[in-house]
Amino acid sequence: LIMDIDIEVPNDINSITLGDYQRYMKIVQANEDAEGEFLDIKLLEIFCNLPYVDIHKMPIASFEEVLMHFSDIFSAKTPLVRRFSLKDSEEKEYEFGFIPNLGEMTTGEYIDLNNYFEDIDNLHKVMAVLFRPVHKSWKGKEAYRIAEYQGTTEMAEIMKSMPLGIALGARVFFYRLGMKLSKHTLTYSLKHLSETTTLSEEEKQTLLKNTDGINNFMLLQEEMLSKLTQQPFSQYTKP
Questions:
Q1: Separation of first and last alpha carbons in the chain
Q2: Which of 24, 121, 125, 205 supports an S-S bond with 116, CB 3.0-4.6 Å?
Q3: Cβ distance 149 to 108 under 8 Å?
């Protein structure tokens, strides 16, 4: 980029922190009707740590080039990363591991995830549930043991410094898995009920309506998943 000022542009999505993403999304949600230029400027202020006055000094070609770079960044896939390292404010390093077996999730973990999941302001708390310090690891194997869940108070704040790509990958993975489990459980329950119970014609019709309702519910969940996987930077997408 040709300009008279220095600018630090993230190389990829994991060069952006979850905390900065939350800051930007809070502005996006509070300014849904704002002009595109306002959010463009906020994008550079937050993700490039660039003062407002310097942004106005940028050549328009450079400004647009940076925005297109962000389009590429946020178009990248974010697969699940099960382990990563992170330092806290005192430079103490932790290795975090994704919950090894979601099927063995505790009630406390499940309740907190449900409470935090939909609100972007709580995404760091979601990560503090899904990722916890690795206590034991087996050499030459992918197996590991994480700390017992005791709430998010201790680790939520440090999660604001985690790479954004890892956070988004874990969020989408968990949501997809939850959808599959919910659909399987509901479908199996209704099928089991119809096969093991003698139903009247009225009860059969009610069962059919419930099945249709479940299918519609799952369609709504799939729409929400689509929104989760589409980052709010479509204005920067190449034509």
A1: 21
A2: 125
A3: yes
Which DSSP letter does residue 5 get?
S
Distance CA 197, CA 210 (A): 16
CB atoms near residue 150 (< 10 Å): 10
Report residue 191 as tokens.
């099928």
Query: Residue 17 gets which letter from DSSP?
Result: B
- Tens of pLDDT, residues 81-121: 999 999 887 888 999 999 988 878 888 998 898 888 888 89
Assigned token pair, 83: 């382990």
Element containing residue 95 per DSSP (H, E): strand 93-98
- DSSP state, 58? S
Which residue bears the tokens 């005192």?
90
User: Which uninterrupted H or E stretch holds 145?
Assistant: strand 144-146
Where residue 84 falls (left for φ over 0; alpha for ψ -120 to 50; beta otherwise) is beta
C-alpha 227/C-alpha 229 separation (Å) is 5
Residue 136 pairs with which residues in a beta bridge? Answer: 145
Which tokens sit at 63? Answer: 């400004």
Task: For the full predicted model, state whether its pTM sits above 0.90.
Answer: no
